[in-house]
Amino acid sequence: MVNIDKDIPIPDNLNGGARRGATWKKYPWTKLEVGDSFVIKERSLKSVGHSVTKMNRIKDPMKFVCREDIEGVRIWRIK
């Protein structure tokens, strides 16, 4: 089960990128409201970046962003 968090501010992007191999189907993308976020603990920022890019393309008009977090990689819905 992946927890959805509210009111977690998005930090500046210090290191971004995308890479093949990220699994995106198992996360609650469509359940997020704007400003909600969730953490992926077992993935790197680069692998999660690929999932975010894919979701930004297929879930228009929804938009997402990811950043490294103390707990792992956090994904926010921004639109």
Overall domain count: 1
Q: What's the quaternary structure here?
A: single chain
Record the strand order, biggest sheet. Answer: 1-3-2
- Straight-line distance between termini: 23 Å
Class from helix and strand fractions: alpha+beta
Share of residues in helices: 10-25%
The biggest sheet, with number of strands, parallel, antiparallel or mixed sense and barrel status, is:
3 strands, antiparallel
Q: What percent of residues are in strands? A: 15-25%
Helical segment tally?
Answer: 1
- Could you say which overall geometry the principal axes of the C-alpha atoms support? globular
Q: What is the helix/strand order?
A: EHEE
Report the mean per-residue pLDDT as an integer.
82
Give a verbal description of the structure.
This protein has 79 residues and is α+β, with helices and mostly antiparallel strands. Helices cover 18% and strands 20% of the residues. The model is unreliable at 14-22 (pLDDT under 50). It is built from one helix and three strands. It has a three-stranded antiparallel β-sheet, covered by helices on one side. The termini are far apart. The chain has one domain. The radius of gyration is 11 Å and the shape is globular.
